[in-house]
Sequence to fold (298 residues):
Amino acid sequence: MKPCKSLLFISAVLSAACLLVLMSSKAVMAKEIVVEVSSTEELGSYFDSIGYNVAANPEILNAIPRFRFTHIPKTWEEDTSIPLKKSVFFRAGASAILQVNESLVHDRQRLSNIKLNNMSQKDRQWLTQMMSTYKVTEDNESFTDEQLRELMVRVDAIPPSLALVQSAIESGWASSRFAKQGNAMFGQWTTSGGIKAEGSDARLAAFPDPRESLNAYCLNLNTHPSYAQFRTARAEMRKHKKPLDGAKLAEYLGRYSEKGDEYIELVKGMIKRNQLEIADSAQLAKGPVVVFRPVSKK
Fold:
């Protein structure tokens, strides 16, 4: 059987990108590489072809490739085997949450260097925006040390294992109507716009792409009063220099679902059964981002 043309193209593109990474000790600032993919099988074969398979290549956890998707596939066939579907979902999702976390940690590091009594105008404008975005205060005249400490508690990463399992539950492994129509991966409700639930006036938030859905999920956990205990527990892990533990932090997400404690056990169970704890210590590779554009099979 002849190899798929798109797979040959993807492999060639990534081989060139990897060569650039090896030629430089610094992060490669390359343009995004856009590639069309037409099935879960094709995507899984691509991941395997570049060594992105933790079972076969555990070292990949130290250099997770950078991917993103233009949208959730709407027309891919539904006869994909469950093991393959889960494997592709987790591998794609791990790259996504690690990239969002990278941005969160960058902002956190910048915050740690802020001195309220000695700020540049640029830092003041940035801090004002952060205080508003993370719902600490809308006051743009002055900030207190207490507000800065609260902001540090809120601006932080989400354990990948937790994000992966919650997205799988809330989106039906990216196969729900909300996921396909609105790139909604985390079941976030909205009071306006979005997608109407069947048999109800409730609406689920819709997003232009999956990355925005992930950003909204992280902001929700990092700001909503329902998850204050989650943030406090995470801050304690940071204080004692412990790695963020998705299963332990899941204990504080009972209010994410009306199922409460049952939801907590579901999340923790899925993390354990799928051995997703290892994702919490994974690291991103340097280099360009491959952007997948899902298309229908011809």
Summary: Residues 213 and 277 are 23 Å apart (CA to CA). Residues 1-30 have pLDDT under 50 and may be disordered. Strands lie at 33-37, 67-69, 189-190, 195-196, 203-204, 290-294. The longest helix spans residues 82-112.
